[in-house]
Design goal:
The chain is of the alpha+beta class. The protein is built from 10 helices and 10 strands. It starts with 6 loop residues before the first helix and ends in a 10-residue tail after the last helix.
């Protein structure tokens, strides 16, 4: 018998590695001494008595004292493992009860905390691609009606990799993006933009954009700030929840939009192939 064959599965039923190895060893014959179990299972001798006592307590083994000492025998797997399963089910039931009690107790505290805000808590500063991507994905997910984007290199996540953005567009909200025309020069990136258009995004293309910008539901603004140190590639993003600012920046967005070209027009002017299924 290969002792380690089912040790991992026994561990999933709540046994630790030593308990699993000891129980597997006990299945080898009618009974063993503690030292025999230690030798067969690989459990350290200084731990074997504790481990065997634990198996006895949990109903997986029985002890048989005699004049020569104590021997240990395995309880039949159909009895032992069903008992383990029942113990795990009881533990899960207790965890479910505790979780429900915690949810009820902590929800009030969470709600109270949401109502406490400082004067600048509507402003966030984000640095690094991971934090920026996570926050942008969260903002896209909670968009209800409209998302407006000024997008230019360098990208925290290029269009062809922005699955969250595609999912947002598929929700049939109004999604409008203004791109720097340089986005069209790379075949893969151009195809990523075309995919957005195919799923319902509206787009315009201009030569140069002043900054990266996202406006969501005329409530949230997310924009990039250039690092003043030339040559640094770190990206810093500001997120501001302010309706007045969002409405003001939307006016600027509309002005740039009106000066832009459609996908087809920009590709044609630059002499680039484009997907006829994409629409502006």
């Amino acid at each position: 018998m290969k002792l380690d064959a089912h040790v991992g599965q026994l561990s999933q039923l709540g046994l630790n590695a030593y308990e699993a190895k000891a129980y597997a060893a006990l299945l080898g014959k009618d009974s063993f001494t503690a030292s025999q179990v230690a030798d067969l299972s690989g459990v350290p001798r200084q731990r074997i008595y504790d481990i065997l006592a634990s198996l006895v307590d949990r109903g997986l083994a029985i002890s048989r004292p005699n004049k020569r000492g104590t021997k240990y025998a395995a309880v039949a797997p159909n009895l032992a493992l069903n008992a383990l399963l029942e113990q795990e089910q009881q533990r899960l039931s207790r965890l479910q009860t505790i979780t429900k009690e915690l949810i009820d107790a902590l929800s009030d505290q969470y709600q109270s905390g949401k109502e406490e805000s400082g004067p600048l808590e509507y402003i966030e500063v984000l640095r690094g691609a991971t934090a920026i991507n996570q926050r942008f994905a969260e903002i896209q997910e909670h968009c209800r009606e409209e998302i407006l984007v000024l997008t230019k290199p360098p990208y925290a996540k290029p269009p062809q990799d922005n699955r969250e953005g595609i999912a947002t567009v598929k929700r049939k909200i109004r999604a409008c993006s203004i791109y720097e025309e340089s986005v069209l020069l790379d075949d893969e990136t151009r195809q990523g933009v075309a995919a957005f258009l195919q799923h319902g995004e509206e787009a315009r293309f201009v030569k140069v954009l002043p900054l990266k910008l996202v406006i969501v539901d005329e409530e949230i603004v997310m924009f990039a700030m250039e690092d003043p140190i030339v040559g640094r590639s770190d990206m810093t993003i500001m997120v501001i929840e302010n309706t007045q600012l969002a409405q003001l920046l939307k006016l600027a967005f509309d002005a740039i939009w009106n000066s832009g070209e459609t996908f087809e027009a920009a590709c044609e002017r630059l002499g680039l192939p484009y997907n006829q299924l994409a629409r502006a």
